[in-house]
Amino acid sequence: MSDAEPTDRIGLLRWQFDLTWALFEYHLERLEDEDFLWEPAAETWTLHPVADGWEPDWADTEPDPVPVPTIAWLTWHIGWWWTTATAHVRGRAPRDRADVKWPGPAAGAEWLRGHRDDWLAALDALADADLDAPSAYPWPGDAGLTVAHLAAWVNAELMKNAAEIGQLRLVRAAA
Questions:
Q1: How far is it, in rounded angstroms, from Cα 78 to Cα 99?
Q2: Alpha-carbon gap, residue 106 to 24, rounded angstroms
Q3: For strand 44-45 and strand 68-69, is the pairing parallel, antiparallel, or unpaired?
Q4: How far from 84 is each of 25, 79, 101, 115, 135, CA to CA, in Å?
Q5: pLDDT tens digit string along 75-104?
Q6: Nearest 5°: phi and psi at 55?
Q7: Is the pLDDT at 48 greater than 80, yes or no?
Q8: Residue 36: partners with Cβ closer than 8 Å, 6 or more residues away
Q9: 150, 164, 152, 175: which is closest to 23 by C-alpha?
Q10: Do the beta carbons of residue 129 and residue 146 sit within 8 Å?
Q11: What is the DSSP code string of 132-170?
């Protein structure tokens, strides 16, 4: 993370992202394989081994109460929304949710690092003026929001998911 003060919107978004990632990396580098599938409650969303990899729990309508996600589910979820956000920024069609394959506990953290690299390459390829282009992700197309909003949302979503993963890791370690 650079100590230089950002002077443009991309610089500020990148600074915020780098700060968030540095805080997340604290937990990523400490994750053990057993952490990923640990179920912290009776009602959880997790991933299940299937013939061609792993399948996430999913509901098109969010249940009430919302199941507590496992670290595995959260890392898959990050991979899903991040590949979709990156595709939108690059002007490509996003992959279907079911086509985003989680690599399993042993490779989960490294998989996220790869998504980080893809996102930063897409973000770094933007000019400041590109941030004003309309964006229809993750909200409806008529919301009137921009690529700048999308990049800010990526930062916020990563902060939230990183905090969830960190808290789960800490609770499991203390149990």
A1: 14
A2: 18
A3: parallel
A4: 22, 8, 13, 11, 12
A5: 999 999 999 999 999 999 999 999 999 999
A6: -120, 130
A7: yes
A8: 70, 71, 72, 75, 105, 108
A9: 164
A10: no
A11: GSB--SSS-GGG--BHHHHHHHHHHHHHHHHHHHHHHHH
Whole-prediction pTM value?
0.93
pLDDT of residue 3: 55
The per-type count for the chain, helices as H runs and strands as E runs, is 5, 4
Lookup: tokens for 57: 């729990």
Tokens standing for residue 16:
């915020």
Q: What is the structure's pLDDT at 19?
A: 97
User: At how many degrees (to 10) do helices 9-28 and 147-174 cross?
Assistant: 20
AA identity, residue 134:
P
State the pLDDT at residue 4: 56
